[in-house]
Fold this sequence. Notes:
Blueprint: E1 3-10, E2 13-19, H1 29-36, E3 46-51, E4 56-61, E5 67-68, H2 72-86, E6 90-95, E7 98-104, E8 110-116, E9 142-145, E10 149-154, H3 161-169, E11 179-187, E12 190-197, E13 201-202, H4 207-219, E14 226-231, E15 234-240, E16 245-250, E17 253-260
Parallel strand pairs: 2-3, 4-6, 10-11, 12-14
Antiparallel strand pairs: 1-2, 1-17, 3-4, 4-5, 6-7, 7-8, 8-16, 9-10, 11-12, 12-13, 14-15, 15-16
Amino acid sequence: xxxxxxxxxxxxxxxxxxxxxxxxxxxxxxxxxxxxxxxxxxxxxxxxxxxxxxxxxxxxxxxxxxxxxxxxxxxxxxxxxxxxxxxxxxxxxxxxxxxxxxxxxxxxxxxxxxxxxxxxxxxxxxxxxxxxxxxxxxxxxxxxxxxxxxxxxxxxxxxxxxxxxxxxxxxxxxxxxxxxxxxxxxxxxxxxxxxxxxxxxxxxxxxxxxxxxxxxxxxxxxxxxxxxxxxxxxxxxxxxxxxxxxxxxxxxxxxxxxxxxxxxx
Length: 265
């Protein structure tokens, strides 16, 4: 049976979205990895599966077939689709990390409430108790969970993430691996960021990584509670509210739609 899909992106962070609300597609980790492959599949940073529910449940697969707990840019992309389908400017999406409200702002950007930043060592999680503002690693990164684990290194040499990211993702200090961000604070309202994503590698943008970078930078006294985070694929607007919730806004675009012929599994 043919299966339709849509490929979307937020600042170059690209996703293939499949809809299981009407029927099961039998997606497995192996299927997800095959579809995400950029040479032999459709190609994407994450495969997104929409499942029936109220709110709609968004399941997130990394290119290696592992399941992710949160993805900010994917949430914004899915929110835009669901809002367009429902003819409204707000929607809530259910994820493993919780329910995430999203809105279409008057300027056209899609904004999502990513929930509260979690800063305890058990929330990340880390392998042992330590100060999440300065981890016991060379470079002393700060750590935060945005529904998935993040470590932010404040390092002007952003290109070194290509060599250091794979090793740091798998460092024993992170029992569930981690997303590794390299951030350069340009001024209190601007951060330049690159992220090596857990299970995906270097991407053009990482929404939850941008949220973590702003939170960690403000905790270090380097930025305001709001800042523009410049990623390889564009710019995201991040705000860490006084109640602990982190808001992320940015553009969404549809790359193309298509049809997969034959069974997926």
